[in-house]
Amino acid sequence: MEKELLYQLALGKIPGIGPVYTRRLLHYFGAPSAIFHASGSTLEKVFNLGPKRANDIARFKGFSAIEKELAFIEKYSIRPLFITDKDYPQRLLRCPDAPVLLFFKGPADLNASMVVAIIGTRSPSEYGRQATERLVRDMASIPGVLIISGLAYGIDAIAHQAALQYHLPTIGVLGHGLDQLYPREHTRLAKNMLREGGLLTKFTTGTKPDAYNFPIRNRIVAGMSDAVIVTETRSKGGSLLTAENALIYHRKVFAIPGRINDEKSAGCNTLIRGGKARLLTDIAGFREHMRWERPAAPSVVQQGTLFSPERSERPGLSDNEKALLQLFDQKKTLTLMDIHTSIRQDHDVLSVTLLNLELLGHISSLPGKTFRLVE
User: Mean pLDDT in the chain?
Assistant: First the structure.
């Protein structure tokens, strides 16, 4: 396992090799170690990686630095979660840009039956503070709920602190490595969260909390959730981007309304007015809309293995995957042009959907950009 982890970490160091290419490589080679033992010509020919990326893999020289990462992981009991691991957040796995590898410390279940993200402004009003605290207090009436946020100033920290107060597991998703904490003022809060929740990141040690990391952090927050709740935010900011990501990932978005002339609630009011978020005033309405009135079974199917799934996994498919699979049910074999004609999806989204169905064993690819239903 340590050997494979070495190669899993190495995959993340190759420029231009993102989640889609990594899944294709894994589907072909079966294990990260086999990818790095392949020749550059094979990688270039089979995957059209181009000579530079193919050679970056075949001649990778960064293993000594990765050994230091392994030592840190072992010393601090960090749990690395590769996309083929059963404990990897399964909701996130359905997102086309899901990170290949995550790092987690804490006892919480990342695949809890109900996961709610609570986000908002870094400079909340007293109204925003009270609304967030009351929301988390009422969330405690939902058995098995997990609260996640970004451990930032303001609403994020308030949500985490309230979750601890009401004994709800809470996870902070970070925009840097686990060898540091930003902001430093939240060190005590983070330590308390490690007892009942945890800290999660896609970034390795030495990664600083640079501004361009936080949109990635926000996408993870959105992708891991069943619902994203914005309690207070201005008309611009990361919270609105997270809400947009949630909509792209087909997650439910809620917003707490504010006074019409209050700039700190302008973003929430805009989300509600534009129909992008459902107005949230009480936990009963939220539970009803989420259909969490009765004890819920896990909303996603646990992944045993990415490469040998059973037909029983079909209920766990995303809406895009279900729609495409219904098309295959009607016509067993389809060309890429047939699919584009029948299903109006963005090209990149469709490519990921086809790849996921192939990895899950529902379809197989044939020469000439043709796909066939596996029966």
Answer: 87
